[in-house]
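F.,

This is the one I mentioned.
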């Protein structure tokens, strides 16, 4: 089987998998893929933590933006008879309940 002409040919021997696995691929057996190989990530051990923290931060920012835009839209509605998107009285009750629950939990933990 000949590789696709746009793919780079492997020169020499390339290790595949973990270092202890001992699997070796030579240029006589090119990979069965249509895309060129990606950059090696062996030295990037903490990259997964950084990606997960960015993901969590993105979720928090997205929620804050959603609530903020809904609030601004409700406040800046032109007529007083316009029905708001969010019932802010119910939201305030739920936030107060969650805050009280968190305070009780913290008092149990802190003593």
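My design for it:
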């Amino acid at each position: 089987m000949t590789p696709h002409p746009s793919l780079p040919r492997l020169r020499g021997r390339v290790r595949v998998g973990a270092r202890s696995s001992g699997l070796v691929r030579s240029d006589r057996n090119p990979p069965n893929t249509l895309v060129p190989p990606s950059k090696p990530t062996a030295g990037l051990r903490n990259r997964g933590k950084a990606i997960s923290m960015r993901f969590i931060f993105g979720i928090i920012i997205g929620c804050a933006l959603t609530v903020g835009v809904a609030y601004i839209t409700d406040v800046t509605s032109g007529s007083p008879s316009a029905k708001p998107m969010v019932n802010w009285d119910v939201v305030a009750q739920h936030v107060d309940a969650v805050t009280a629950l968190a305070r009780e939990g913290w008092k149990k933990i802190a003593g």
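The first strand starts at residue 13 and ends at 15.

Talk soon.
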